[in-house]
Amino acid sequence: MNSSSNPFDSERKKIFGKIYLANVRNRLRELKNPNDIDCQRSCWELVQNAKDSIAGTDRKSVDIKIHVDENTFIFKHNGSPFVISTLTALIYKYSEGKTNDGESTGRFGTGFLTTHCLSFNVKITSDIITDGKVKGFEVTMFRDGEDDELLEGLQRTEDSYKEYESCNGWTSYEFKMTTKRNKEACRLAIENFKDNIAKVMLFCPEINSIELDDNGKVLSINRLDTIYNRNYSCYKSIFEVNDNNQSGKKTFIYNNVDEHNELLTKKFKKSRNLRINCAIELDENNNIVVDESSPCLFCSLPLVGSESHILPCIINSPDFEPDAERQALLLDGSETDDKTGKISDPGVNKMILERVQDMYEKLLKYICDSGIKNRYLLARGLQSIPSVTRFFNRKWYSDNFIKPMRDILIKYPVVWNGIRYIELTNVYFPITNNIYSNRKEAYGYISKIYNNVVPTYEESINFNKYIWLGDERISYVDIEESVKRVESFKNMTSLKINCNIQNEWEWIDDFLSYIKSNCPTYLEQYKIIPNMNGEYVKLTNELSGTFKVPDNIIECLEEIGVSWKVIHLHKKLIKYSTGSEHSQDYAISKIQNRCREWSENILKVLHYIPYSEEKEFIEKYSLIFDICSVIFKNDMKTKKDGTGFPKYLYEGIDNIVFKKICTEIKKNSKVGGIYTIEFINKVLGCLSIYYSSYTEYEIIPNQNNKFCKYYDLSKDNNIPDLFKECLVKCLDKDIKNNLMHKDITPIKPFYEKNIYNYEYTLKEFFEKPEKGYDRYSLIERKKKAACYLIRIIPKVNVNNRDINDDYNYNFMDFQNNQRVLFNLYKKIFKNFSLNSCEIERNDKNEGIWKYSNKYIYKEIKEIIESKNTISKLSTYIGESEKETLKYLKCFINFTNEGKIIPNQNNEFCKISDLCNDGSFEKDETDKTDYYFNKTKKKLVTIPNKLKEISKLLGYDVKENLIHGEFERLCLRDISYQEICTKIDNMMKEEYVPENYFNQNFKNACRYLIEDYFDTIDEKCIEQYFPNTYKNKDNIVLSVLFNKETRKQLTNLKSQYSEEELKKLNSPEKAEIVKIVLENEITIEQINKTMSESKSSLFSNSSTFTFSNTNGNGSYLINSTFERCVNIKFSSSIINDKELNSFYTDTFKNVMKYGDDFDFGNPINKRTGNCGEAYIYELLLNSNKFKKVEWKMLSKSVYSEVLEYRGKRYNIVNDGSHYDIYVETFDGKKIYIEVKSTTGSFGNKIPFYISKYQIDMMRETRSPDQYILALVFDVMGREPKHFFMKLIDDLIENH
Q: How far from 315 is each of 298, 309, 790, CA to CA, in Å?
């Protein structure tokens, strides 16, 4: 034999090819059109190879990645490299076998060939260990075609093998999908992979992570926490699932068995442990969840195809012995192999299932103690033996697995009744499977009858899928058992109590209808039909319905002694009926027989109002019932519904009743007791329609509540009650006796009376002569009548006047003016609290007030005259002087008699004693005054300066001038010419030596010559003041600057230089100059004191005291040059050092700050005005008062401007005896007098209160108040203020 060739090589190769074909040919032929199970398994075979690659190595885990696109499926893992033997086995479809390999998952079956569902050509890239060195390689398997093509493909596979020095690190299987079935297989494999991969990772800890890229949709699964519960010997594992960026979690609870097993050790001749996992999946709400499409059996990987083997939990065991196709467990046959005497494959599987039972109970206990829901799934697979046909022993499975598992489950609370979980043995289990037309309806009845001691409907439906029948420990109930239970209750009350049914009638009606439709014979066999008394009876021939007979007729039948309810179905049974009905006509005939004449039965019938008839008929008998309920109250109860009572049942009853009613009312003679106005209205409303003879009876009340006949009364056309009261109390005339009661509405009299119909009565009364012994009584009654009539007011004429102005007099509208007079009357009589009323406008009503208003004028006039001045009147009525003037202007439209017209000193005078201010002249005089056009003339008023000058000269012209707010009402004028002449004459008379030192005369001269003459031209002075004009220079020298004053000026000029005299002209030294010029201190006295104190007149810091020329006082001149009077104390004060010190300090403060309140000084006047502005802003900004009014505040362009604390005010002195008026939200009025000083708080500050202010304080009555406000440091940054309440008499006010 040639050594270079072996004669057997050729034959050996042929034989090897035939063996290869024998191994793969048939299976590959099947996989050209693979079934779905093969397709689903294909991916798991690759997972198996990845997991098995690290078996028996130091590697603990493997990562898997799968990439799928339209035509490619790539599976990758980073397990251990190939060796030549494992690669050879893969390529040539050869395996040494995994029978004794405890770490391998697959031992039999088609293995890797199944992956050819995806493609017959597979490109493999990985690493291989050769000669102890790891290299990279790639090879492509070609397994397409038949025999010769397969052998050719094997050769191509060998030829494609390539090795590389560099390592790949990952093993990759790439399948090119070329057919539609390849792609379908890929989709089935991927979906099954997604459904089960989390469970596979649970059972295969060696798989570290999974990543699936399915056409760009990436699924990744990673392990999170695994928690061990020592008390229950179980685990809780959580996996993070990210499916196409949608994060979620998979949660499992499970327990393990991993224990040495002698039977397996003997079988495999190697030490082996029995390994089992028992698991249950939970959702995110802690509910048990089951994937119906996923198998319950796992041998590390899912036993795809075993889905029909349903179990209450997932069981995994690498020691399972499945069939060759890994689709079922081997359970048929002996537990022991007869040949070897060792445990058989079925014996291994049975051993595992028996061991699972204890694991199941432990999980069950944990689930019940942990509040996990959906426990009905724990009975899954226990209802019956699974429909497994191959390798299965039904009897063994039933006796040794199903029954023990049921025994375990029945001990634990797994049934949800809507409140809690209870055991199967403690619940009534409704049996509703396919027996009744409506399963949920049947469940509802059973549930109510057994008082809800049943599962919820959803729970019962769920358990019906898995619960087993025929177990004596479980109480199964059906409809007939429920019917028997209902019969045992005997009546509806007992049913409600025992079954806790809210609406028991609706329920029994539905229940009977259900029984009639599904089990009709039960109605005749059992007493479950309620009659009208609510008692249960059987269905009989005499049992009839009464649905068409109204309840009120049935009630009436029972009241008059006709039995009805015993033999009729209860009316609350709406759906259920017996088929027999009694009619309404039959029932009415029973009533009619008992109402032939007047009796108690008629009253009983009258209780029923026939609401089913027309409206008029219903109203008629409703009124009859109400009337009878009052008159026959002992026989009448509550009104009842008479719907269904026919008209003929009432015929002949009403006339008898009406006659009786009229007779009973007439007996009472007047309204009272049971015969109220409301009742009489009901009677008349009924009688006027249905009984015309009512007019013959005295049953209609007048306005004094006496019953009269119809034709003796008239209609009251809105005559006010005030008017009626006036006639009774003042005229002794009661018109109510002839007026129908105003609350009588059903009938209308023939005659009508209006308020103007009584004009003659009023005229006769007010024109009655006021003489004789009852003269004063008559006058008082007329005043009283006028007070009544003023309170009867016409309504507002909204079309012809501003309805918001209550004091707008209109000469064309007497009714409007009557309203104005009423408002004035209320305002003047501030305590007026009597009621008033409005009447409709009617020109005929003028006579109501025509004769009475003169008494109103007189009363108002007397009040005005009693107050003398506007100030007192405004205080009296509680309004500002501005508002008071408004009321006066309004009132004089009604009358101007008496002292009611104010002069310009705000004093009330007769109009005949007053003159108009100024006159209409052709020539223009004082350009600074106001002008009003009157034809071609101009109104020339008297300047305020001339009025002031006139007063200083002894003639107060303002006393004779009408107030400026009033029109020119007077018959006479005092013209500008007249007042100028008057002043000129008075100047002439007063210009005598004895008046040269008279201060009033000096001021008059100064104001006229130095002030007023500067405002007019020389021609006007000569024209209007001829005497004064000729003597003005003499007056200046003799009065304003007399001999002594001129002497002092000469002395000043001789003592000081011109520069020093300029310094004396400053404001700071003005006080000294004034004192010198007024001859109160001489220059010599100043110089002497200056020399003694070693001070200079021009110093700004020294203080000097000078005695005046009369020796009875002194002047204190300090750096601010304030002046004060030197006070000489009596000896008793001087000798008391403490008292002397007190008075000295007090008077120092008086002299220091006293001028702050002297408004003759412009500086001090500003101090006062600023204080008022400060208090005004303080109160206004507090928002706590309804109204805040500063009396000096004005909108006039001729007003004085005050700037204070960043704000600008226009002010005019209005002469009020208070500065600020405040009105609170509850109507209280507060009058505030403000006193201000630049002095700081803490000093003794004097202030003045005038007599007028004290008078106003006395006239202010509670709840109104007169308040004094003190403001310190008014010019500073933060003034301080205080409020003092002033009262006239503490005892009286207390």
A: 6, 11, 106
In angstroms, rounded to a whole number, what is the distance separating the alpha carbons of residues 814 and 820? 10
Alpha-carbon gap, residue 777 to 105, rounded angstroms: 132
Q: How far apart are CA 295 and CA 203, in angstroms?
A: 14
Name the DSSP class of 398. Answer: I
CA pair distance 247, 3, nearest whole angstrom: 69
Q: Is 969 exposed, middle or buried (0-12, 13-18, 19+ CB in 10 A)?
A: middle
**Six-digit token pair at 480?**
């007939």
Instruction: List the beta strands (DSSP E) in 1055-1177.
Output: 1104-1107, 1114-1117
Q: What are phi and psi of 697, to 5 degrees?
A: -110, 145
d(CA 887, CA 828): 9
What pLDDT is recorded for position 1105? 47
Instruction: Provide the 10 A C-beta neighbour count for residue 879.
Output: 19
- Helices 584-592 and 551-559: angle between axes, nearest 10 degrees: 30
Task: Please state whether beta strands 933-934 and 901-902 pair in parallel, antiparallel, or not at all (unpaired).
Answer: unpaired
* Token pair recorded at residue 1271: 């403001």
Round to whole Å and give the CA distance between 601 and 745: 33
User: Which DSSP helix (H) or strand (E) runs through 696?
Assistant: none
Query: Closest Cα partner for 36 from 120, 117, 121?
Result: 117
Query: 1121 in the Ramachandran plot: left (φ > 0), alpha (ψ -120 to 50) or beta?
Result: left
Retrieve residue 206's tokens.
Answer: 């060696």
CA distances in angstroms from 701 to 670, 726, 1247, listed in the order given: 7, 22, 72
Q: What is the DSSP string of 931-981?
A: --EETTEEEEPPPHHHHHHHHHTT--GGGGBB-TTS-S--S-EE-HHHHHH
**Is the pLDDT at 1160 greater than 50, yes or no?**
no
Summarize the confidence of residues 1014-1038 as an average pLDDT.
91
Is the link from the previous residue into 1263 a cis peptide, with omega within 30 of 0?
yes
The answer to whether residues 254 and 280 touch, using CB atoms and an 8 Å cutoff, is yes
Helix, strand, coil % over all residues of the chain, rounded to 5: 45, 20, 40
**What is the full DSSP assignment across 1020-1053?**
HHHHH-HHHHHHHHHHIIIIIS-HHHHHHHHHHH
CB 712 within 8 A of CB 747: no
Please work out, in degrees rounded to the nearest 5, the angle formed at the alpha carbon of residue 421 by the alpha carbons of 418 and 422. Answer: 115
Residue 758 confidence (pLDDT) above 50 = yes
| pLDDT at res. 433 | 65
Contact predicate 1221/1189, CB 8 Å: yes
**1118 pLDDT band (50/70/90 cuts)?**
very low
Sort 515 into a burial class: Cβ within 10 Å, 0-12 / 13-18 / 19+: buried
pTM over 0.70: no
CA distance 880 to 827: 12
**Whole-number average pLDDT of the chain:** 85
> What are the phi and psi torsion angles at 1209 (to 5°)?
-125, 140
Residue 299: C-alpha distances to residues 34, 99, 151, 315 (Å): 23, 14, 34, 9
Tokens 């979906």 — which residue? 191
**Which H or E element spans position 701?**
strand 700-701
pLDDT bin (cut points 50, 70, 90) of residue 1125 is very low
Distance CA 1266, CA 1261 (A): 9
Of the candidates 135, 131, 201, which has an alpha carbon nearest to the alpha carbon of residue 162?
Answer: 135
Report, in angstroms and rounded to the nearest whole number, the Rg of the chain calculated over CA atoms: 62
Angle at which helices 439-449 and 457-466 cross, to 10°: 110
Q: What percent of the chain has pLDDT over 70?
A: 85
Contact 192, 203 (CB under 8 A): no
- The tokens describing 43, both together, are 């991916």
> Distances from the Cα of 1175 to the Cαs of 1168, 1187, 1190, in angstroms?
11, 14, 9
